[in-house]
Amino acid sequence: MKPARPKSARSRSLAIGTRAVGAVALALTLASCSLFGGGSGGGSGAATSGAASGQADASIAAAAPAELRSFYSQRIDWKPCESSFQCAKINVPLDYSKPDGDHIELAAIKLPTKGNKKGTLLVNPGGPGGSGYDFVRDAANTNISEKVRSAYDIVGFDPRGVKRSAPVTCLTDAERDASRAKTYALDTDAGLQAALADNKAIAAKCAENTGPVLGQIDTVSAAKDLDILRGVVNDAKLNYLGYSYGTLLGATYASLFPDNVGRLVLDGALDPSLSYEELTAGQTVAFDKALHTYVANCQQTSGCPMTGSAEDGVQQIRNAINAAEANPLPSKDGRKVSGSTFVSGLIIPLYNNDNWPILTRALGQALAGDGTGMMQLADFGADRDPSGTYTSNSSFAFNAINCLDYPMVTDTASMRAEDQKLRQLSPTLGYYFAYGGTNCKDWPYKNVRTPAPVEYKGSAPIVVVGTTGDPATPVEWASSLRKQLGNASLLTWKGEGHTAYGRSNSCIGNAVDDYLVDGKTPADNTVC
After folding, report:
1. pLDDT tens digits, one per residue of 126-181
2. Sign (positive or negative) of CA dihedral 379, 381, 384, 387
């Protein structure tokens, strides 16, 4: 999941957002990257920078469905890129029900191994909407161990609809700024109708600017792409590391291609059986818990702007959010920090406890009447750089994929009831997680997936990883996914933040490394 974060004023619902990397959860994206610093760009671990070409092994292509063999047997030209990486484009069908129809290209990047290659490890950092290309380029050298990098080529890709791969395209940067600046009193009829009208207009622009691919970026289609990627890198079995939403993609793959599963690590697990509304409720509780944990920790340090008990501190934050709703805070660039923008900034650092000091500074400013820090955090979550440029389409891809993957409650009475329920679960955050149905009510394509327990009949064991203090994918979801998969092992980190591998401890790191490299599956219910 991408960060469960309010993506804009128009999209209050945070559900299913889980960037797995970085504090943000970049809805992307990796929980261990520093909030305002990239991972390791060029790549001390990269191998050759020369071009490489490859034709799929004939036996791999022969095992593919007849109507798709041309995709599995395509020749891939890996060309030098990004200083010390290799990049390529992979053709996949636009619509798998019409494989002879239009094609789209997926952008992929490879960090070649310097060691004795066992195969390729495909990586998805979360979302939906996270760029695997960016993750491998910026963080593979720091988030994936040397042991794994010595055994595998590491390949990241932008899933269909994301950034470089037939991207969902909706608004200009100026229009995105304007959309994020709008506020709606969604608990009033006038406010709800205004939000619905604006969302309908945005959906129409998405359809116009994106084209037919907008209806073909569901997770099942992305999982079928994943098998073509497996084939073109010449692996008979899929080796895969998926964070957050990437666990849903991986679990979907396992259900569709059980005999092709190699070594799958699903970290920060989603529960495929839960409805969108159930996921939202789970995240609401988990983020509220994370906020209380953060405040209690802050109050043990000098300079914390929240006083009294942890509950007192959370109330002070709640008061500040309410005040920003009534009178938005100024920021240094002239933009205003509304209540929803405040919450967007508030939850981003909760994805990674290493970034709590950044949140403390921003809250100190906000409580003193300056919204600059909270605006910077909200911009980071929206992938907006200081120049005003949006560096990804993750917000739009997030919404578009979720609208295809989940049937959502969109009638007014049910959304109002959900609002009241979420406010009870979290008086501070609940309202800002509500009304997710407004994003899909007038979406041009209906959902094609219905949540259900995943079924996996393969012989290769899968490793599921959960974190006890994960705000975006509550640890209970990892336990549920492990049970659904059956042939799986659950690994749990007693820690804070979203996801574990690459940002936790040697217990988790060694267990994952030993599984990926040596095939040693950790004992089920191992706790680190």
Report:
1. 999 999 999 999 999 999 999 999 999 999 999 999 999 999 999 999 999 999 99
2. positive
Indicate the residue type of 285. V
Q: What are 14-51's pLDDT values in tens digits?
A: 333 332 222 222 233 333 334 543 333 333 333 333 45
Assess whether the previous peptide bond of 128 is cis (omega < 30° from 0).
yes
The tokens describing 428, both together, are 């501070």
Taking only Cα atoms into account, the Rg of the chain, rounded to an integer number of angstroms, comes to 22
Give the dihedral of Cα atoms 232, 234, 236, 237; nearest 10 deg.
-70
Distance, CA of 401 to CA of 362 (rounded, Å): 32
Amino acid at 360: T
381/349 Cα distance (integer angstroms): 9
**Catalytic residue numbers, as ranges:** 244, 470, 498
Tell me the angle at which helices 356-367 and 339-347 cross, rounded to the nearest 10 degrees: 160
The alpha carbon torsion through 73, 77, 81, 85 (nearest 10 deg) reads 60
pLDDT tens per residue, range 70-126 = 999 999 999 999 998 999 999 999 999 999 999 999 999 999 999 899 999 999 999
In a 10 Å sphere around its CB, with 0-12 CB exposed, 13-18 middle and 19+ buried, how is residue 302 labelled?
exposed
HEC string of 423-479 equals HHHCCCCHHHHCCHHHHCCCCCCCCCCCCCCCCCCCCCCEEEEEEEECCCCCHHHHH
Pairing outcome for strands 462-469 and 75-81: unpaired
Q: Would you give the DSSP letter of residue 375?
A: H
- The model's confidence at residue 55, banded by pLDDT at 50, 70 and 90, is low
